[in-house]
User: What shape does this take?
Amino acid sequence: MSLVVFGSLKEAPGVTTLVTCVAYQWPRHRRVAVVEADADGGALAPRFGLHPERPSLVSFAAVSRHGVSETEFWSACQRLPGGPPVLVASGGASTGSALEQVDFGALDRSLRDTDLLVDAGRLRVAPAQARLCEQADFVIVVVRPRFESLAVLLDRAEGLSANRPLLAVVVGDGSYPVGEIDTALRQTTGDRARVLAAVAADSRGAAALAGDGGRERALRKSLLARTVRPVTDLLVHLSAAGTPVPSAPEVT
Assistant: This one.
């Protein structure tokens, strides 16, 4: 099973929305859980009406100081409405401390039949997040096709792809075609990074995803769900096959 880390580098291009949609689309024959590992605090608890602190990443860190237990992990999870389990993170210093304590690599090994989708928020140059990225099977950087965001991506792509595949998901429209971003990434990293897919910036679909009334329809018919589906399918394929990167990215 795989440990997949999602994050951004500069702005907030919708990492949590992408992770949530992917998690809801994950096939039922593969067990999946979402983990919030954002030092600034997670968004899933307020967005989906979950409890922000009990249980949470902080409570899990407290009981896993002397080793990771699969039972303790599931006990610390809540559940997305009609969806998979989630380990939520509140904001503040306690979350930052918890991220320092949790060994995500050990957690991944303990949950041998579970794919872990980790929402890391902003991927800062900090020890806890660097260790998380080193332990990941795949790192997914969510980016908008704008100069400021792409400049940071290209600057950090070589380091982020040094030990594991780096895949970019481009959200929304901008000045740079997805094919050009893919070429620049591959040239910068010697083919260790590339664009996985392009996703629509669909605020209505994102809002419906978080609302009980329209969630099922949003997961079937929204522009967000339709454009996220290739991301989900490729990640499931990579997780199942152990393939480093797809032979041809979805760069429509």
Observations:
- Residues 223-241 form the longest helix (19 residues).
